[in-house]
């Protein structure tokens, strides 16, 4: 990593522990800072908190006392903490800089960065790019929202390596100098309005990904959404992708994938299922071609990569019924892709955290839904949606109960699909936990019915 001296003697407040806060605190200590970690919850049983205390970090939990700001030079904020809380509002009034952990990671990283964001597809794209790098002679290090803390990964990279970083809108709100060589926005639709307040604020956060880029850098963008860039001050080279028309980047023509008029692969040879994944393929091809990877590495991935956990993940087939885990579908657009992927009758497990949106975006995607199994805080909204479309439904306590209920209504030739169209946080810590419960319970009912 870079020899950074900017933090020596600085007093830094790490707001929010979790994995990123823990790694951030350790890095800042290494860089010579005096570190305080503050978390609103209880850290009494946290092994990470105890480990930090052993290293000399002051750890304050169960609240955010404003006195913590009195000698603070910088705040590194957990992305999920809203800027509206009192301590951050007061920090802004005092002109204390507030960044997120990916900004710190960027400042110490010696190599180049490919940064991936978007409403949907960013994890699949990050995984695809990561696999293409793995097949090549260039090292690419996965980081960010995909599960690897960026500030830890950045310490392990060499100058010739790439950081492959999945970014949320929350993280992008807290950058200052962050400048990826290749920035990717897969798409932008309505999401996270409970955090951002308005769609305009959400879009602005996403577009932050290219704000520090120069003419030497690239922005890969969806050609169907060009209008979103109309009022933006873009200094980088914009490379478009499209499944419907030729572009200056990657596109599909006559069922073949091209990049800048160079043939890459026949669509029929791509093993990743789903029409929506063709866009993810095009994005990944463009990024890896711009990064200088050979076609052999790209093609090897496209002919072997079958998908990621919790994203239209085939679980099993039992007595003619197929079960799919799409727990990562935390919004209506992602759920629409899953619902459109099947020609068979679908038993749809849906619902979760109410983030203020409706479900009218799914009006055109439920013609094959035979029954809905509704869970979570959005139950009343989804009951109304089911009534409007004449779909039978069952109200369930949670995903486990929903899986059990499907056993009473399914028959051979049908599909059980967990694709919630909602975040998990009303009942589950993460969408992974929700998906794992689905997988476990499918296994239980399959054993019971043997």
Automatic annotation (TrEMBL):
Predominantly, its location class is cytoplasm
Q: Mind listing the GO biological process terms from this record?
A: cell division; cell wall organization; peptidoglycan biosynthetic process; regulation of cell shape
Biological role stated in the UniProt entry = Cell wall formation. Catalyzes the addition of glutamate to the nucleotide precursor UDP-N-acetylmuramoyl-L-alanine (UMA).
Identify a single GO molecular function assigned to this protein: UDP-N-acetylmuramoylalanine-D-glutamate ligase activity
Q: Which Gene3D superfamilies match?
A: Mur ligase, C-terminal domain (3.90.190.20), Mur-like, catalytic domain (3.40.1190.10), NAD(P)-binding Rossmann-like Domain (3.40.50.720)
In the UniProt record, which is one GO cellular component term?
cytoplasm
List the source organism: Macrococcus bovicus
Kindly provide the name given to this protein in its UniProt entry: UDP-N-acetylmuramoylalanine--D-glutamate ligase
Q: Please indicate if the UniProt record lists Cell division as a keyword.
A: yes
Cross-referenced Pfam families? Mur_ligase_C, Mur_ligase_M, MurD-like_N
């Amino acid at each position: 990593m870079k020899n950074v001296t900017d933090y020596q003697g600085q007093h830094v407040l790490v707001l929010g522990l979790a994995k990123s806060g823990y790694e951030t605190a350790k890095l800042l200590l290494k860089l010579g800072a005096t570190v305080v970690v503050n978390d609103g919850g209880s850290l009494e049983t946290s092994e990470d908190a105890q480990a930090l205390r052993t290293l000399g970090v002051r750890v304050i939990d169960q609240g955010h006392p404003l006195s913590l700001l009195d000698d603070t030079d910088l705040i590194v904020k957990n992305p999920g903490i809203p800027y509206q809380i009192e301590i951050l509002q007061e920090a802004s009034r005092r002109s204390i800089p507030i960044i997120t952990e990916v900004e710190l990671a960027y400042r110490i990283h010696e190599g180049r960065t490919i940064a991936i964001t978007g409403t949907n597809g960013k994890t699949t794209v990050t995984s695809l790019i990561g696999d293409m790098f793995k097949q090549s002679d260039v090292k690419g290090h996965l980081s960010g929202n995909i599960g690897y803390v960026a500030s830890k990964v950045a310490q392990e990279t060499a100058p010739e390596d790439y950081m492959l970083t999945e970014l949320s809108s929350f993280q992008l709100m807290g950058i200052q100098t962050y400048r990826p060589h290749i920035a990717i926005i897969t798409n932008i639709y309505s999401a996270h309005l409970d955090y951002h307040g308005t769609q305009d604020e959400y879009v602005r956060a996403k577009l932050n990904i290219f704000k520090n880029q120069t003419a030497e850098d690239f922005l890969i963008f969806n050609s169907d959404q060009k209008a979103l860039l109309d009022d933006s001050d873009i200094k980088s080279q914009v490379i478009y992708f499209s499944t419907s028309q030729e572009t200056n980047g990657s596109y599909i023509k006559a069922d073949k994938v091209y990049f800048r008029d160079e043939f890459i692969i026949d669509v029929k040879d791509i093993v990743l299922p789903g029409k929506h994944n063709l866009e993810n393929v095009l994005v990944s091809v463009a990024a890896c071609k711009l990064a200088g990877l050979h076609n052999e590495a790209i093609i090897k991935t496209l002919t072997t990569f079958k998908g990621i956990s919790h994203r239209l993940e085939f679980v099993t087939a039992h007595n003619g019924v197929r079960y799919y885990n799409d727990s990562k579908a935390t919004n209506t657009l992602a759920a629409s892709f899953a619902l459109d992927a099947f020609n068979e009758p679908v038993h749809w497990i849906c619902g979760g955290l109410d983030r203020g949106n409706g479900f009218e975006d799914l009006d055109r995607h439920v013609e094959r839904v035979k029954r809905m199994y509704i869970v979570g805080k959005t139950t009343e909204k989804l009951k109304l949606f089911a009534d409007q479309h004449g779909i039978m439904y069952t109200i369930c306590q949670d995903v486990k109960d929903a899986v059990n209920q499907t056993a009473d209504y399914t028959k051979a030739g049908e599909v059980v699909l967990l694709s919630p169209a909602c975040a998990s946080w009303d009942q589950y810590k993460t969408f992974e936990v929700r998906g794992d419960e689905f997988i476990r319970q499918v296994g239980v009912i399959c054993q019971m019915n043997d």
